[in-house]
């Protein structure tokens, strides 16, 4: 049976971008619906956590960006983004990128709260984690094989671009290896066509 795949996504979600980029690299056709997750009551029947990305395949729901990427990869005929030889390294680096996305997102959500609800300590904690994570990536940089794409590269690029989008790009001046790799990677069509936007 031909799968009918719907990707519920947002205009700027770095987790959603990972899944969209995976579908482009793996040449999986899907129907992407950009929604406002904060008003998406209809999503609850698929995903009670009400988060994007959420993937619906012939009515069956796949939740969490990593599961969605693994699923899209599993139905593709292209080279896997999760090669067995370095599977755990790829998964751990992807989790580090996810953690970076989460901190940038949490920081952003806190900064737009009303002054009487905002915690400056919380914002500071996220900023320290953001800086520490990017420094770690620089210090533990893997010389990726340019001709073989893996999931962690996609996740790291989405996380760094989201850091620039929602926080700042100060990381570039302190991280020459990361910056040089990123400036090259971001030129891929699958990255250019999925840049985050406000709406
Ligand atoms: N672990 C989840 C995180 C997804 C996530 O945090 N999505 C955010 C948007 S970037 C969201 O839907 N937030 C809605 C909310 O918190 O109410 C994943 O990897 O898919």
Shape: globular
Q: Strand order within the widest sheet?
A: 2-1-3-4
Beta strands, count: 4
What string, H for helix and E for strand, traces the elements in order? EHEEEHHHHHHH
Q: What percent strand?
A: 5-15%
Quickly count the domains.
2
Whole-number average pLDDT? 96
Q: Sheet with the most strands?
A: 4 strands, mixed
Assign the CATH topology of the largest domain.
Glutathione S-transferase Yfyf (Class Pi), Chain A, domain 2
Radius of gyration: 17 Å
Bound molecules: glutathione
Give the distance, in angstroms, between the N- and C-terminal Cα atoms. 35 Å
The DSSP helix count reads 8
Poorly predicted regions: none
Helix content: 40-55%
Summary, kept brief:
The protein is of the alpha+beta class.
Structure description:
With 199 residues, the protein is of the alpha+beta class. It has two domains: 5-74, Glutaredoxin (3-Layer(aba) Sandwich); 84-192, Glutathione S-transferase Yfyf (Class Pi), Chain A, domain 2. The protein is built from eight helices and four strands. It has helices spanning 14-25, 65-74, 87-111, 120-139, 151-166, 171-174, 176-185, 189-192, and strands spanning 5-9, 31-34, 54-57, 60-63. Strands 2-1-3-4 form a four-stranded mixed beta sheet, covered by helices on one side. Helix 1 packs antiparallel against helix 5. The longest helix is centred in the middle third of the chain and has 25 residues, at 87-111. The protein is globular, with a radius of gyration of 17 Å. The N and C termini lie far apart (35 Å). 31% of the residues are buried. The mean pLDDT is 96. The structure holds glutathione. Glutathione is lined by residues 10, 13, 15, 37, 50-53, 64-65, 98, 105.
């Amino acid at each position: 049976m031909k799968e009918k795949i719907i990707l519920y996504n947002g205009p700027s979600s770095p987790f959603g971008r990972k899944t969209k980029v995976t579908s482009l690299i793996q040449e999986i056709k899907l129907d992407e619906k950009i929604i406002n997750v904060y008003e998406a009551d209809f999503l609850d029947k698929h995903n009670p956590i009400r988060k994007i990305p959420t993937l619906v395949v012939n009515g069956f729901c796949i939740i969490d960006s990593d599961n969605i990427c693994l699923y899209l990869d599993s139905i593709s005929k292209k080279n896997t983004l999760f090669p067995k030889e370095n599977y755990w390294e790829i998964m751990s680096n992807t989790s580090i990128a996810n953690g970076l996305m989460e901190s940038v997102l949490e920081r952003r959500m806190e900064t737009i709260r009303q002054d009487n609800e905002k915690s400056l300590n919380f914002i500071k904690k996220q900023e320290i984690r953001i800086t520490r994570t990017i420094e770690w990536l620089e210090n533990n940089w893997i010389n990726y094989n340019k001709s073989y794409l893996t999931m962690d590269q996609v996740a790291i690029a989405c996380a760094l671009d989201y850091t620039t989008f929602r926080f700042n790009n100060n990381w570039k001046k302190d991280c020459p290896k990361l910056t040089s790799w990123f400036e090259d990677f971001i030129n891929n069509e699958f990255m250019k066509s999925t840049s985050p936007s406000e709406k």
